[in-house]
Design goal:
Aspartate Aminotransferase, domain 1, binds (2S)-2-hydroxybutanedioic acid, alpha/beta, 15 helices, two-stranded parallel ribbon, Aminotransferase_I/II_large, Aspartate Aminotransferase, domain 2
Length: 395
């Protein structure tokens, strides 16, 4: 019956992470998957999140099915966080927000929605982008193409504008709101403003992916792209995640918001998103969303969370400096300044797939084959080892 089924080729990120777990070598270092590890190499349980979880569990509330669109307190908390409770778009009810299953779930629901209601639109992805973006959209039957993003170690802003300027109206443009995955190279504020203008003029539909809020410059600062598009006044989509900034990976806390021209359109969009959800997974799970909502809706926990996110961000910056310093000593004559200028969890190292293979096979240091390094996996104990291994494969 199943003999014709081909073997799964594996996922460039998740299957590599599985291979890392199975690797018996001592001292192995996981710089592959986008997960924040603390100084002890552990995934932290944030104090704010633990306190929120206690409150959720103590309530011992019944667990009926959630509505298809998710819990109301989660959805309003997400809107307040991302758009601001007092923003006219929020007050006018012209944003449709659903609780997703992680932001990947939000991407998938949006992809089905776009395929149904924008059947001739292509999705423009940055080159390069997160390995799964193409798969999610194409899996929903949408054609994808790319726009230039990264050249010679820097943002190719001119190349990006040139291609987007020629994109057909109603094309969807997928943008990383902060901490670009995989390069760590972001647009500056002036560039976001210029881009927002072009997207409006050309009637393109922006789709922001915000998976790393707080890891760039801060929880509020990392919303610059969101606020810029909101103020530009056009419609856009936004998928956001709490996996990384609340260290809640397995709880799949995330949302999808669609900013619409008016409340009547937002209502219809919400209805169609519910239809897509019902066909995919019916309704989201309760627990993780309630933990997220409790952190966001409890002022003391929110303040504590903000500090905890700042601490994670600061530690990553310290690791960037440490790696830069050791590597600059070990490999004189080569410029590693990109480790200092790139933002968020990732750095694009410029290592070739063969060099990445050598790092894994000879040194038990895991990076994604594109050369992407998750800097958040470095700590004071492994940074020398990683720098030594990189120096060896660069020789
Ligand atoms: C990553 O890019 O490593 C993370 O977003 C995890 C994933 O699902 O790929």
């Amino acid at each position: 019956m199943f003999a014709h089924i081909p073997p799964y080729a594996g996922d460039p990120i998740l299957s590599l992470n599985e291979a890392f777990q199975k690797d018996p070598r001592e001292g192995k270092v996981n710089l592959s998957i986008g997960i924040y590890f603390d100084e002890d190499g552990k995934i932290p349980a944030l104090a704010s999140v633990r306190a929120a979880e206690k409150l959720v569990v103590e309530k011992a509330a019944a667990r009926p099915y959630l509505p298809m669109e998710g819990a109301a307190n989660f959805r309003s908390a997400v809107q307040n966080l991302l758009f601001g409770a007092d923003h006219p778009a929020v007050r006018a009810g012209r944003i449709a927000t659903i609780q997703g299953v992680g932001s990947s779930g939000g991407l998938k629901v949006a992809a089905d929605f776009l395929h149904a209601h924008f059947p001739t639109s292509k999705v423009f992805l940055s080159n390069p982008t997160w390995d799964n973006h193409r798969a999610v959209f194409e899996g929903s039957g949408i054609e994808t193409t790319t726009y230039p993003y990264y050249k010679d170690g820097a943002l190719d802003f001119d190349g990006m504008l040139e291609v987007l300027d020629k994109a057909p109206a109603r094309s969807v443009v997928l943008l990383h709101a902060c901490c670009h995955n995989p390069t760590g190279v972001d647009l500056n504020r002036g560039q976001w403003q210029r881009l927002a203008q072009l997207l409006n003029e050309r009637e393109l539909l922006p789709f922001l992916d915000l998976a790393y809020q707080g890891y760039g410059d801060g929880l509020d600062e990392d919303l610059f792209a969101v606020k810029t598009l909101l103020d530009a006044g056009g419609p856009f989509l936004l998928a956001n995640s709490f996996s990384k900034n609340m260290s809640l990976y397995g709880e799949r806390g995330g949302a999808l918001s669609v900013v619409c021209p008016d409340a009547a359109q937002a209502d219809k969009v919400l209805g169609q998103l519910k239809f897509m959800i019902r066909r995919n997974y019916s309704n989201p799970p309760t627990h993780g969303g309630q933990v997220v909502a409790t952190v966001l809706n409890t002022p003391e926990l929110y303040a504590q969370w903000k500090d905890e996110v700042a601490a994670m961000r600061t530690r990553i910056l310290a690791m960037r400096s440490a790696l830069h310093e050791v590597l600059s000593t070990k490999v004189p004559g080569r410029n590693f300044d990109y480790f200092l200028s790139q933002r968020g969890m990732f750095s694009y190292t410029g290592l070739s797939p063969e060099q990445v293979d050598a790092l894994k096979n000879e040194h038990a240091v895991y990076l994604v084959r594109s050369g992407r390094m998750c800097v958040a996996g470095l700590n004071r104990r492994n940074v020398e080892v990683v720098a030594g291994a990189m120096a060896a494969v660069l020789r």
